[in-house]
Amino acid sequence: MRRLKSVVTFIVVIAAFSFGSFITKILILVEKCPAEHSGLHVATHADNFLLVLVLSSPRNMEQRNAIRGTWLRLSPRHIFHSYYPEELLYLPNYGPNGHLEIELVEHQEIRLKEYINWKKSSKNLHSPKRARKIKVKHMFAIGTMQLGKAIQDNLYREQGKHNDLLLLPNHYDTYYNLTEKILQAMNVLTQTFEFSYLIKVDDDTYVKLDTLINELISYDNKLLHKEREYGTNPLPQLYWGYFNGRATIKLHGQWKEYNYYLSKNYLPYALGGGYVLSRKLCEYISNNSQILSLYASEDVSVGTWLAPLRNVYRWHDPRFDTAFLPRKCKSYHIVLHKRSMEMMAQIFDGKLCSGTGHSSVLEYYYDWTKTADKCCDNLVP
Ligand SMILES: *[C@@H]1O[C@H](CO)[C@@H](O)[C@H](O)[C@H]1NC(C)=O
Ligand SMILES: *[C@@H]1O[C@H](CO)[C@@H](O)[C@H](O)[C@H]1NC(C)=O
């Protein structure tokens, strides 16, 4: 009798398990279903090429709508006269001691000039020969812990309409809790979605998404072409943004940091207005989320978390205007932080940057050959 019972239990367990995997398969298939068919080269790709993660606070629905109505519409199906030429992109090799080579200031300067020239001349080029099918997905991350009922209801309504909110029930959403938030969001996204790259932005950031994706595709193509050359070394993983290596540790005010004693300044990090990470780096963060030290600032934390890895390619790019104050407006800026809803509409309508910016905030190339305190003195004229 006992034996029979355990056999029955066994069968039930097996059946439940098979049913479970069946359901999981279906769910995964649903997720991987071809995207809606859209004229150009896009659609039917199982994976998301780029995830756009916007950190947004519960009450900022209007900001989210401004983003939905402007730069998120620069989806790939509207673009790509031609991909950005791979030869104009830098991709580091490993040096003799297993360190990734760094990009010199002179080269950063040349690359910016080449980009500006390409931009001028690329208007009339044809479609790329080998167009890749890519899919982009965006999510607004919002913590919903202890939210009032009215605001929760608003969020559910917004979710019903757009289905693009990443609601985090275990996160208490305050401005001073962004490190927790990025960690939770990255955890969920990495475990839920396939993707190759993730861009993190705030809800007051404007991204020239078409340009960014175009270049990211070329970067990714180049990486695929070069893959073999890396041999037994790990492939470089992208950490793309505007870096600072000599920010002083905040000892007062809202961002006061109690626990940063590893170095005199924050280790180099990409400023939080917007930065791109390749999937493996998100995995690394997600896999280690239980043992990472959380610091007051989210962007500082990411920089420090990735500090010891030898396969991180830190791409410092003056086209990321991602500091706390916007810099002087430049037509080549592709990620623009601290933009109001009105400015977003204007940029979308063709204005180069909108707003005057602060000419006192200097723009620089990053000197990786020097110690971090001398990182940032080579100014972009
Ligand atoms: C930050 O969020 C976490 C959960 O993500 C929560 O446990 C914690 O209380 C929050 N801290 C503050 C200061 O709000
Ligand atoms: C993270 O963990 C998953 C599951 O164990 C593993 O497949 C993946 O390779 C890990 N990634 C990194 C970068 O450590």
TrEMBL record:
Belongs to the glycosyltransferase 31 family. GO terms for biological process: glycosaminoglycan biosynthetic process; protein O-linked glycosylation. This is Hexosyltransferase. It comes from Drosophila ananassae. It is a single-pass type II membrane protein. Keywords: Glycosyltransferase, Golgi apparatus, Membrane, Signal-anchor, Transferase, Transmembrane, Transmembrane helix. One of its GO terms (cellular component) is Golgi membrane. The keyword Magnesium does not apply. The gene is Dana\GF19742.
